[in-house]
């Protein structure tokens, strides 16, 4: 009996080359790559969550090197009680003598000259609400002396001050230390101290910011992008840093020293943004950046530096 005819099913040319094994593996490799990327992303996110769960951190333990700033204000008019200003306004010869002395002092890293006009312009810029508004109306352009501003390294600061104060044409010399936060943080969110009013005009109270107010601020910080670290500076550390700045032993009243959150950011230039966010939160008195003292910021004209 004849066998029934079988229907032939064709899937193409049977003579084609077999598919390479790499083609068979390509899809699993792509899937594995996507999984690895996702896991890496989850790992980074998990690390960020872990890091932020440790906030706020205590202040860095290592001490910063001694550094500071100075300002030398030149005589404006005759001052009988001050021998260096007895003859009136500082002369060009007086300024050349001061510059020579500054160049000879090993503690002086750099200095700059500021004209009276530049001083007034910079003072007006600084004397804005929230910073120098309380003293802005007490001065006028004629009150701005010529000045030299500069940076100091380690050394005999008392000797530097005595030497500069003795020079003809010098009316006053200010020397301040630098904060230990420079290079460690960028922005400070300062809380109300025990005694409000005055420089702390937003703090009409007689108690420090509460734990709840600080927690609310920390919660807002944790929602921000670009914050690499948050430190809490308690009163003890704040007093230590103030004494580093006011190095001559001036008594500091702890009732007017604020505690702060210090933020390390991934990029500069965010002061206005953070003031807008935190400046009016309960318990906050100011949002400031780590910057040189006001008198150093007034120095805008390059001079004969070292």
Automatic annotation (TrEMBL):
Keyword set includes Nucleotide-binding: no
Keyword hit for Transferase: no
InterPro entries found in the cross-reference section: FtsX_ECD
Residues in FtsX extracellular domain copies: 71-173, 203-287
Keywords in alphabetical order: Membrane, Transmembrane, Transmembrane helix
Membrane spanning residue stretches: 29-47
Name used for this protein in its record: FtsX extracellular domain-containing protein
């Amino acid at each position: 009996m004849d066998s029934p005819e079988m229907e032939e099913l064709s899937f193409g040319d049977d003579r084609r080359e077999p598919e390479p094994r790499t083609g068979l593996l390509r899809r699993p490799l792509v899937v594995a790559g996507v999984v690895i990327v996702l896991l890496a992303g989850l790992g980074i996110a998990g690390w960020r969550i872990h890091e932020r769960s440790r906030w706020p951190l205590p202040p860095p333990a290592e001490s910063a090197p001694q550094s500071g700033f100075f300002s030398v204000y030149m005589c404006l008019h005759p001052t009988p009680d001050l021998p260096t200003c007895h003859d009136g306004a500082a002369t060009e010869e007086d300024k050349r003598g001061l510059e020579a002395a500054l160049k000879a002092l090993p503690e002086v890293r750099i200095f700059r000259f500021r004209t009276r006009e530049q001083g007034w312009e910079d003072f007006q810029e600084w004397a804005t609400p929230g910073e120098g508004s309380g003293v802005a109306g007490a001065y006028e352009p004629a009150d701005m002396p010529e000045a030299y501003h500069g940076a100091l390294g380690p050394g005999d600061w008392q000797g530097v001050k005595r030497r500069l104060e003795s020079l003809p044409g010098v009316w006053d010399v200010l020397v301040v230390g630098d904060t230990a936060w420079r290079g460690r943080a960028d922005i400070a969110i300062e809380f109300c101290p025990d005694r409000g009013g005055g420089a702390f005009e937003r703090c009409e109270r007689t108690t420090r910011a509460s734990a709840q107010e600080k927690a609310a601020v920390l919660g807002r910080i944790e929602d921000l992008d670009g914050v690499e670290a948050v430190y809490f500076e308690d009163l003890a550390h704040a007093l230590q840093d103030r004494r580093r700045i006011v190095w001559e032993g001036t008594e500091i009243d702890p009732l007017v020293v604020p505690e702060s959150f210090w933020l390390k950011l991934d990029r500069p230039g965010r002061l206005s943004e953070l003031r807008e966010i935190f400046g009016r939160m309960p318990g906050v008195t100011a949002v400031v950046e780590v910057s040189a003292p006001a008198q150093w910021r007034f120095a805008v004209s390059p001079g004969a530096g070292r």
